[in-house]
Amino acid sequence: MATGQVLQNLPGPAGWVTAVAISPDRTRLAAGGSTVQPQVNLWELPTGRLLHTFELEAGSVKALAFSGDGGELLAGWEDGYLRRFDVATGELRRALAVPAAFLNAAVYSPRGEFILVGEGWPSFTARLLDVETGETLRVFGGHKAPVDSVAFDATGTRVLTGSEVVRLWDVSDLATRLRVRRTDEGLELNWNGGILEQATSVSGPWEPVPEAGSPWRVGVGAPRGFFRVVAVAPGKRPVPAGPAQ
Question: Is residue 8 part of a domain?
């Protein structure tokens, strides 16, 4: 970046490269090819050693993205499926079908709980998916051309969609959803942004949990209570997310 010097050349798929991504720790690089050779190559950096090749007869590769921890590679082919690969083993973890529109772009949210997808004809929309279930959580409409670029901000509470114009959308209500996971020690609460609050009754009164940060663990012997996350978006009043017990 300092000099603009070429640091390395890697042989991409035959034809031309249609998508690239680099892992957050800069130790892995992925490149996807066109219909001439519709595969994804995954290399180790800086050695340039080829680690895995993912090849499907599914049209050109439209999108590549690494998860925030670098452990997963998201690859979107022209067939409309998003495939999640384990970076270490090359194993296919899950395939998610995008509704009937051309898949043009896809990216993980900063904490990895969502995937934002850009779509082409006939919908010209973007779509926010739950990474585990593939459920559509929100559709962003109004564009008049294919949505070829999408992005999250660093907090995961706003998204960008690029088409004939660039639009900025607020998703703080979804980003601050309280997710509960049971463990042997009790409960683990996870959220992305916002303030964790606690109450002894679902009707309140609600009080902020001092120094709470995600993940927040509630031990088996803790007093019975309810938790919720209050989203605080810039320039807006706090919006409570649904409570969890």
Answer: no
Please report, for the chain, how many H helices and E strands are present, in that order: 1, 22
The two tokens of residue 177 are 């959803």
- 61/119 same-domain check: yes
The CA distance from 152 to 172, in Å, is 11
Non-local CB neighbours of 22 within 8 Å, separated by 6+ positions: 28, 29, 30, 45, 66
What tens digit of pLDDT does each residue of 47-84 get?
999 999 998 888 899 999 999 999 999 999 999 999 99
CB 86 within 8 A of CB 72: yes
| 3-state SS class at 174 | helix
- Average pLDDT, stretch 201-221? 87
- 37: Cβ–Cβ under 8 A, 6 or more apart, which residues? 13, 14, 15, 55
Domain that holds residue 201: 176-240
- Of 170, 121, 176, nearest in space to 144 by CA: 121
Q: Is the peptide bond before 38 cis (omega within 30 degrees of 0)?
A: no
Q: How many structural domains compose the chain?
A: 2
Instruction: Please name the amino acid found at residue 89.
Output: T
Domain boundary among 171, 193, 214: 171
The answer to whether 37 and 13 have CB atoms below 8 angstroms apart is: yes
pTM above threshold 0.90: no
Token pair recorded at residue 56? 């499907």
Q: Answer with the one of 153, 171, 189 that is the final residue of a domain.
A: 171
Residues 93 and 77 in one domain: yes
